[in-house]
Amino acid sequence: MKILNEIFWPLVAVLAAFVVGGIIILAIGDNPFNAFGLLLSNSFGSAKDFGWTLFYATPLIFTGLAVAVAFRCGLLNIGAEGQLYVAAFATAWVGIKFGGTIVNGESWAWTSLPWFVLVPLCCLAAVVVGGIWGGIPGVLKAKFGSHEVINTIMLNFIGIALVSYFTQYHYKIPGDPILETANIGEAAHIPQLNQYLPFIPHDVPLNLSFLLAILMCILVYVFLWKTKWGYELRAVGQNPFAAEYGGISPKKQIVLAMTISGGLAGMVAIGEVLGNRHNYYDAFSADWGFWGIAVALLGRNHPLGVFIAAIFFGVLMRGQIFVDAFTPRVSKDLGQVLQAIIILFVACLQIYALNRRQKAAI
Amino acid sequence: MNSILLQAFIFLIFASIRSATPLVFAGLGGLFSERSGIINIALEGLMLAGAFTAAVVTYQTGNPFVGLLAGAIAGGGLALVYAFACIYFQADQVVAGMAINFLMAGLPALISGAIYDSSGSTPQIDKLDQLPNYFNNISFASILAFITVPICWYILYKTPFGLRLRATGENPAAADAAGVNVIRLRYTAVVISGILAAIGGAYLSIGQSSLFTRNMTAGRGFIALAALILAKWRPVPVLLACLFFGFTEGLTIVLPSLPFFKLSSGEDIPIQFIQIIPYVLTIIVLAGFIGLSRAPKALGIPYRKES
Questions:
Q1: Does residue A157 lie within any of the structural domains?
Q2: I want to staple A92 with a disulfide (CB 3.0 to 4.6 A). Which of A47, A280, B32, B265 is the partner?
Q3: pTM of the model
């Protein structure tokens, strides 16, 4: 019964969002059934379609976990976007500096490390830099009490501007019209999954980071529910005063939660920089950090829920491209609108989900 | 040198007033909502609703005042949705507020994509159809902002509505016992909040510029919230705090034009370092002053009537 309750209300929220979304599509003069049909059929139709859906879901798993960990501590991390940007740049930087990158015959690298050192080093850069960028609003909240929502939003703007500066002035190949860094060394590339799993079509860019995402779901579950730190983190999220009375320092947990959250968001860089683009590209993220909020909420801040919700939003991200192309009037912003309405409905229906559980407890 | 500095200084003052204008409206909007006990993280989205609607209606009618009115109505309407979520459903106010922001990151683009076949922005409004400027480029909206501050002060401190509003934000149960309709009052406060924030947004699209672009508020809703905290939820300090944040934005316009504001190599200082000034100062100010600030006691807590 408990599981049914966990699934029922998110499902209601999704259905209600599609009804409202349908009304909006009608209002702008298009056919909602056609739009929703395109949205869903191009995500599950074939192995290739589903592979692409998983590809879109991968960054959302990381950002969804990031937001969920912060939520469990009672914090809303709207800064996953900025965290994954600075992490992606840091990853590319390590990949260039230690990966033997040569640009126009001139070496930009300090050294050229073998892959078994370079790949972990790049991953470490992603997690640490993402963690630091997430930890800053944590420290600000713990030390000064300033609200993490405002600070993370401000740090998004600051982080994205800073890495854009470094890219533009220091790591762009001269003459490149696009704001992107030079490519990382080949030793830093992580393999595509179809090298090992032949049933994945070769034109699906799903890479090793998808497996890392699954692993992180398990690790986050273990951390939150099987370790003392995770228990303390959740205790602060449920009631900071009671937790403090019980000898747990809410301040420490806030910093910890935001740092872990930032580190998880930073892992997006592993899939994107090491596995997909092989450089840092300005505006590479399709608002994944913000979509992570919807993923976490719909997944009820549980790693398994996050995984399922990420695939659902992966469907929207994949499908909206086809909606954009094959409907006369609906643009790909449909996905963004549906995502927002889903968040609103999840927030509104929370009270029913809770009430039902309280009744069940009695 | 001196005349350049003087010119820059005068320019900076006007730039600050222009940049502060949308913040003042949004800040005052947040004031009503938060003084009644409802957190308003949705200011950003409410501003975008106003900006988009005003741009579309001004483009269609050629009358910026009709556009401004339409923007205000759109903001009020969207705020009603937000209020319904927060008050009737007792939704988490921060989460519901972010949902409104996300909705307004997508819905304007969806609509303008359908009617103008361009989801990035709305069509350009004729220069003559923008909100008018008076004395030395002071916008109609800026003057309105300066007039709105004392009106809000009067409403908040000198009217029965203001008294009930403040009481509701501090202790809704006591206000209820004294005969205040807490629920209706909170709805009213949030809708006023939406109307004001939307006027601020409208200024961006039909005053400061002449079209709506995606996410054109660029975090101003959140900066207004920071200004509100800095101002300890009081109207006149809101004006001052917004002028301060407007000043930081003004710096980003004025500094690059100063001849001596260069790197030691003589090159321009990278634009990114200038762009981040308002955001960095927001964080610093928030960290430095929040300890001195005390939020309305019932802020963020849904009201459940005892039965």
A1: yes
A2: A280
A3: 0.92
